[in-house]
Amino acid sequence: DPDAETRTLVRDHEVEIDPRSGLISIMGGKWTTYRLMAQETVDAACRALNRTLTSATDKLKLTGGSGFDATFRQAFRREHAQLPADVQDHLLDTYGTNAGAVV
Hints:
Order of helices and strands: HEEHHHH
Shape: elongated
Strand content: 5-15%
Number of strands: 2
Strand order of the largest sheet: 1-2
Structural class: mainly alpha
């Protein structure tokens, strides 16, 4: 079972800075934690450069997030009333304002 092999892989991530070259590497991780991985990598780079800046990824909207509110959700449901409610929910929760393009 190929899925069983994937499930056993290490899902933790690690940020390392090579002391000789200063190269910053991110290893491991999983798709669902990519923003945390990016944040920790940027923060490590800032520390290595003696900068007081930190990553702002937690404040940035993902694609499909801008304008995604109850009004958008209601309009999408009206426009795609032919779709089952669970499918509408999945599309909205996964793709936000890009849900219509997916349909």
